[in-house]
Amino acid sequence: MARGGMIWVVVFWCSLACPSAVLAVEDDGLCSSAYDYKDALSKAILFFEGQRAGKLPASQRVKWRGDSALSDGKPDNVNLTGGYYDAGDNVKFGWPMAFSVSLLSWTAVEFQKEISSINQLTFLRSAIRWGTNFFLRAHSSSTTFYTQVGDANADHQCWERPEDMDTPRTLYKITSTSPGSEVAADTAAALAAASVVFKEVDSNYSAKLLRNSKLLFQLADKYRGSYQASCPFYCSYSGYQDELLWAAAWLYKASGETSYLNYVSSNEGWSQAVTEFSWDNKYAGAQTLLAKEFFAGKTNLGKFKSDADSFVCAFMPGSSSLQIQTTPGGLLYTRDSSNLQYVTSASMVLLVYSNILNAANVGGVQCGSVNFSAAKIKAFAKSQVDYILGNNPMKMSYMVGFGSKYPTQLHHRGASIPSIHYRPAKIDCNEGKSNWYSSSNPNPNTHVGAIVGGPNSNDGFNDLRSDYSHLEPTTYMNAAFVGSVAALLGESQECLQVMQIERTLTMDD
């Protein structure tokens, strides 16, 4: 099959009375994947079951995990069980958890048809609900929200299964007198986005999510103050204006109330051109959501559309305003610490934005003298997904359990120590560190679907458990990858149909 340009497939019906039909498919690299996106998506979603805290349900598919952190919240007589461990540790950080849930919800909203077509929508909704249920419990009053469970410093000195955890489960919260606008607004965004997801399948739950979202937005906006409780692990560098715009954009989408649209337009001065979309910086996400509204006729949101275009131009090779370089093997490279978090999130935004451009019949994004069509933007984002899945100089997948070669020493406490079901005797911090963290053997549990931090700037990768910046998974990295792969499902299925027709014709010839 030809690569690039146009692929023409002529289909002849056997009946002489039938006219011939011509099927044309534009190919900017979208039909050239050798990877099973359906398998990648299902595994990326499955990963979240391995990150669960609390009492595991009967439907739990990750069998090497067990119940954990069942007393969370007791010092304050509040139930804070459930939720997710953010990475390879045993702390529940509410801020990155909110970002992860908002990305999963955005994916479910944007690509519901594609995800449903491969029977993964139920699992995705379950992953979202596991997070939102925790947020509802953590929102103990209109002006009180619990933002973290666990002493991160003590936890990071210990290598222990979550089921054995005995490090302090210290509670952190924000209130009207001790604010944290970033985490309150980010959680408001997650709840609003999730309310859209559940609107048609559980209207009462959706309404509850929206009510809590509005209250958390009020807490974030009325009592402004930067969130620092999770520092030095999650520190606010971009301030809280990006989260406020992100939350307001989602609240408008969820409620339709013009007050939220007025909020973003009156605060458009906060918006700025950025080169990353991350747990800390939400500008690109808000800009993308609001650009969609701009194309729908709300022309007063032009600043957000312009900034969304700038985000695209910062990444596209050949752009006159290129700011993020690629490795020799073609991977976007923002910074060394868990670089794939920036790759997956940027790819998701580029793919969502290309869909928005297509739906609005917009020719593309103008970057100086170069115009990038929606198809070219999508093809570039697809190249990033394919790199992660194996099209890279190391010829390996950076998703655990995908393909024939992938990381075996994931920096993850639960995965690196034998399952409590296999070895029920308690394994304490020191035994975990000496016998399992320091082991050169592969992890005893395969944490299927986990995306690791990824290769270095020269595409090199050393499968070494202690190298956390390259071997540790995170929920937000996986959540963005779920969105990226879901965006490619439709294209891959259409292209497979075209290639099947072409193959049939070739055989007939």
Automatic annotation (TrEMBL):
SUPFAM superfamilies tied to this protein: Six-hairpin glycosidases
Alphabetized PROSITE patterns for the sequence: GH9_2, GH9_3
Entry keywords, A to Z: Carbohydrate metabolism, Cellulose degradation, Glycosidase, Hydrolase, Polysaccharide degradation, Signal
Enzyme Commission number(s): 3.2.1.4
InterPro entries the record matches: 6-hairpin_glycosidase_sf (IPR008928), 6hp_glycosidase-like_sf (IPR012341), Glyco_hydro_9 (IPR001701), Glyco_hydro_9_Asp/Glu_AS (IPR033126), Glyco_hydro_9_His_AS (IPR018221)
Gene Ontology process terms (BP): cellulose catabolic process
Superkingdom in the source lineage: Eukaryota
Catalyses which reaction(s): Endohydrolysis of (1->4)-beta-D-glucosidic linkages in cellulose, lichenin and cereal beta-D-glucans
Active site: 411, 463, 472
Residues annotated as signal peptide: 1-24
GO molecular function term, any single one: cellulase activity
Domain Glycoside hydrolase family: 37-484
Family, as annotated: Belongs to the glycosyl hydrolase 9 (cellulase E) family.
PANTHER family: ENDO-1,4-BETA-GLUCANASE
Protein name per UniProt: Endoglucanase
Provenance organism: Ilex paraguariensis
